[in-house]
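User: I've been trying to design a sequence by hand for this structure and keep getting stuck. Would you show me what you'd pick, starting by listing the structure so we're on the same page?

Assistant: Good idea, let's start from the same input. This is the structure you sent:
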């Protein structure tokens, strides 16, 4: 059985390629705020990744945080398969709901994804699911 932070090796993946020291201890499977060098917290905006191994405070995060690929994470609530998900204040993931985007005065808008794709459904808080970062 996989655990949070395990990488789904059947897909391409990309680890953090540059040096950044952790500012706090990070556990395997934690959603990591890259700019702050710590576990995701309420109010963080990203960019983010998922630690695939434990990282001690002060240690370099290079090569230890998945920034692109499919990884196992912990759900914060019920999530439908193929929902867009975002990090929560509990450093888990939750489905996006009720998002409204307003663009004013734009002559052209490129595509973007609000959140990450959940490949699996979660029946309850604490379920492990795969997401595509």
């Amino acid at each position: 059985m996989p655990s949070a932070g395990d990488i789904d090796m059947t897909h391409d993946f990309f680890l953090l390629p540059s040096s950044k020291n952790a500012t706090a201890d990070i556990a395997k499977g934690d959603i990591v705020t890259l700019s702050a060098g710590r576990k995701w917290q309420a109010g963080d905006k990203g960019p983010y990744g998922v630690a695939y191994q434990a990282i001690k405070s002060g240690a370099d995060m290079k090569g230890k945080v998945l920034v692109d690929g499919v990884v196992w994470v912990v759900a914060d609530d019920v999530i439908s398969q193929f929902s867009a998900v975002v990090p929560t204040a509990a450093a888990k993931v939750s489905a996006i709901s009720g998002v409204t985007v307003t663009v004013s005065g734009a002559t052209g808008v490129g595509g973007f994804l609000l959140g990450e794709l959940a490949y699996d459904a979660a029946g309850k808080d604490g379920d492990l699911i795969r997401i595509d970062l």
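That's my pick for every position. To get oriented when you compare it with your attempt: Confidence is low (pLDDT under 50) at residues 106-114. The first strand starts at residue 14 and ends at 15.
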